[in-house]
């Protein structure tokens, strides 16, 4: 069996923890700023954004806890490691995004029906501009680390931050339109459009997390790549019982390979070991287990 090297995993764990910590600190700060601005302006849209940012604080906290938990090494009770903590976190954050969508839709309809009086719009404009720019920057950083480490929790968290950036742009636009034209319906209309975008991203993340939790096989492209590596290995005549799954950022791959029956145990072991290392190098981090079968015409393709 071949598994990811400890130094590699330790570096990834540090990167994930740092990114999650930055996200959490940023969201706490931004939430406080938005709450203060909402109090000064009396803007319902700003208050809505403050609530949105508060949910991001929860999401960032989930991401921070999950990447710490997922980084724990395998133990007797969890021999396959703790990678699914990230899958659970990703699912929780996706559900949280869907809750935000419901809240935004409700608030938008209420504002369309009743309207809202706001004052000191300049404060709101500056706060939303700051939020839009900084949320985008932090989101890109968290996404970069999430892609680099394969962390679903960080990917989901970066989506939250990007949503915050886009909704901030929407609220900023609504405030500017209201300030320049006096058209109060601009804010709820913008919010409804953004809600559709948020829902699409949340649904995609929900499916990704669910696939990991139910041990769905790797993509057809990745499975084909595994089979190609097997075919390119000299002496291996066939492979069967190929099973794959993803847990957190780690791919688990196991299979049986068929080698000539006249091979010695040492020769068969060396070939299997070399193949395991090639697969790990291609899919790292990965855990690969290969069982060797001697050639038997009745078992080929089983």
Determine the mean pLDDT.
Answer: 81
Strand-and-helix sequence, N→C? HHHHHHHEEHE
How much of the sequence lies in strands comes to: 5-15%
Q: Tell me about the biggest sheet?
A: 3 strands, mixed
Distance between the termini: 22 Å
Overall form? elongated
Helix content: over 70%
Contiguous low-pLDDT stretches (5 residues minimum) are none
Judged by helices, strands and strand pairing, the structural class is: mainly alpha
Number of helix segments? 8
Q: What is the tally of beta strands?
A: 3
Within the largest sheet, what's the order of strands? 1-2-3
What gyration radius follows from the Cα positions, in whole Å?
25 Å
Structure description:
The protein has 302 residues and is mostly helical. The protein contains 8 helices and 3 strands. It has helices at residues 6-41, 44-70, 84-114, 121-149, 152-181, 186-213, 220-231, 265-283; strands at residues 238-247, 250-259, 286-294. α1 (6-41) packs parallel to α5 (152-181).
Task: Give me a quick take on this structure.
This protein has 302 residues and is mainly alpha-helical.
Properties at a glance:
302 residues; elongated; single chain; 8 helices
SSE topology sketch:
Elements: H1 6-41, H2 44-70, H3 84-114, H4 121-149, H5 152-181, H6 186-213, H7 220-231, E1 238-247, E2 250-259, H8 265-283, E3 286-294
Parallel strand pairs: 2-3
Antiparallel strand pairs: 1-2
Helix pairs in contact: 1-2, 1-4, 1-5, 2-3, 2-5, 3-5, 3-6, 4-5, 5-6
């Amino acid at each position: 069996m071949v598994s990811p090297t400890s130094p590699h995993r330790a570096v990834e764990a540090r990167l994930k923890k740092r990114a999650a910590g930055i996200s959490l600190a940023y969201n706490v700060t931004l939430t406080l700023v938005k709450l203060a601005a909402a109090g000064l302006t009396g803007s319902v849209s700003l208050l809505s954004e403050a609530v949105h940012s508060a949910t991001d604080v929860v999401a960032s906290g989930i991401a921070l806890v999950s990447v710490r938990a997922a980084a724990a090494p395998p133990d007797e009770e969890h021999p396959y490691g703790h990678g699914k903590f990230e899958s659970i976190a990703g699912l929780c954050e996706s559900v949280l995004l869907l809750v935000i969508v419901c809240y935004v839709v409700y608030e938008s309809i209420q504002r369309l029906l009743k309207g809202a009086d706001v004052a000191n719009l300049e404060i709101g404009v500056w706060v939303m501009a700051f939020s839009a720019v900084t949320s985008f920057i932090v989101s890109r950083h968290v996404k970069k680390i999430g892609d680099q480490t394969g962390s679903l929790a960080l990917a989901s968290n970066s989506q939250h931050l990007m949503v915050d950036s886009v909704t901030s742009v929407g609220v900023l636009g609504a405030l500017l339109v209201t300030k320049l034209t006096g058209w109060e319906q601009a804010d709820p209309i913008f919010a409804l459009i953004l809600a559709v975008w948020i829902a699409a991203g949340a649904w995609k993340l929900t499916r990704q997390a669910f696939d990991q939790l139910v041990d769905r096989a790797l993509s057809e492209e990745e499975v084909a790549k595994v089979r190609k590596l097997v075919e390119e290995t000299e002496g291996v005549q066939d492979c069967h019982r190929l099973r794959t799954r993803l847990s957190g950022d780690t791919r688990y791959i196991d299979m049986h390979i068929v080698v000539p029956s006249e091979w010695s145990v040492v020769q068969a072991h060396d070939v299997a070991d070399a193949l395991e290392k090639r697969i790990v190098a291609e899919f790292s981090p990965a855990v690969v287990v290969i069982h060797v079968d001697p050639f038997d015409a009745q078992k080929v393709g089983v």
